[in-house]
Amino acid sequence: MLHPHLRMRHFRCFLETARLGSLSAAAAALNVSQPAASKTIRDLEEIVGTALFDRSGRSLSLNAAGRVFQSHVGAAMADLELAQRLVLDPPQPRPVVRAGVLPTAATGLVPRAALAYHGDFPEVLLDVMTGPNWLLLSLLREGQLDLVVGRMPPAGSADTLRFRSLYWERVVPVVRADHPLLRQDWDYGALTHYPLMLPPRGALISASVRQWLQSVGIGDPQPAFENVSLAFGREVVRQSDVVWFISEGVVQTEVEAGTLAILPIRNELLGGPVGITLRDTDEPSAQTRALIAAIERAAEGLIV
After folding, report:
1. Residue ranges of the alpha helices (H) in the chain?
2. Start and end of every HTH lysR-type domain (predicted)?
3. Domain 8-88, what fold?
4. Which part of the chain is CATH 1.10.10.10?
């Protein structure tokens, strides 16, 4: 329990004396007389029950007890000053835009838009969350996200949402750069001889991929992996003969760098629209509208 006779003047005088090493200098800094400063230090040492300074002529230096006392009193005074500033001049809350981003938009489109947006609105915190479509749309409905960038919501699930299409994106079979199937005349039936990595059944592109495989004679595909994660898919494909069906935007950087390659196919309907999903019941904030505009600018020319 704090001693009832301790006062702020004791702490201030102690800290100034410790800092300056002189009672006269501390008195001048505190705008009090030297006798008053000397009495304050004597009173403090009587209250705590021990000397806090070693005295040599007119100079004072902290002893072991004084150094311990200084470390704690200094921290306490700093906390008190911070508390006072926060009460008298509370910081203004920083505006935040919360965006859910599917993997197909997280590698190219949204990073470009985010950098441009930050350049125009550096005061806004852009909180980006990636995850599966069902989770992001659920968080959007609950008001925990302001928008979702990715595939169009499934039919029948968009009653409280509205979708704004940005571009059409292909789903493509991706392989390592020296894969045996990398030739224009490869036969679709050859896919049965290689392990497949398909989108999980809960993913938006899952049904269209499986329907395409059925249309080319692979009626009951048995994938070795189900995945839409770039980090996992890239490494598995690079180190094996796996054929990965994935949205082109997810692997665009790797394809451009030559790390991965796209197997040529003739069905351009294997894909779907990428866009922005919002709650139909709310008007987006000014910061959210500005982010939407940045995403739309970044998406120009991405029709594939």
Report:
1. 8-20, 23-30, 34-48, 64-88, 103-106, 109-120, 133-141, 206-215, 230-238, 248-257, 286-299
2. 6-63
3. Arc Repressor Mutant, subunit A (1.10.10)
4. 8-88
DSSP 284: P
C-beta of residue 66 within 8 angstroms of C-beta of residue 112: no
- What's the confidence (pLDDT) of residue 236? 97
Task: Read off the pLDDT of each residue in 120-137 and give the average, rounded to a whole number.
Answer: 92
Q: What is the pTM of this model?
A: 0.64
Tokens at 151, concatenated? 């595939």
Element (H, E) at 260: strand 260-262
C-alpha 93 chain-centroid distance: 18
- The identity of residue 255, as a single letter, is V
In this structure, are residues 43 and 52 in contact, taking their beta carbons and an 8 Å threshold?
Answer: no
Q: What is the average per-residue pLDDT within 220-241?
A: 94
Q: What is the pLDDT of residues 22-79, one digit of tens each?
A: 999 999 999 999 999 999 999 999 999 999 999 887 788 999 999 999 999 999 999 9
DSSP letter (8 states) at residue 263: P
Give the span between the Cα atoms of 27 and 58, in whole angstroms. 13
CATH topology assigned to domain 96-299: D-Maltodextrin-Binding Protein; domain 2 (3.40.190)
Tokens of 187: 């036969």
Residue 304: pLDDT band by 50, 70, 90 thresholds?
A: very low
Looking at per-residue confidence, does 290 or 82 come out higher? Answer: 290
- For tokens 């919501």, name the residue: 153
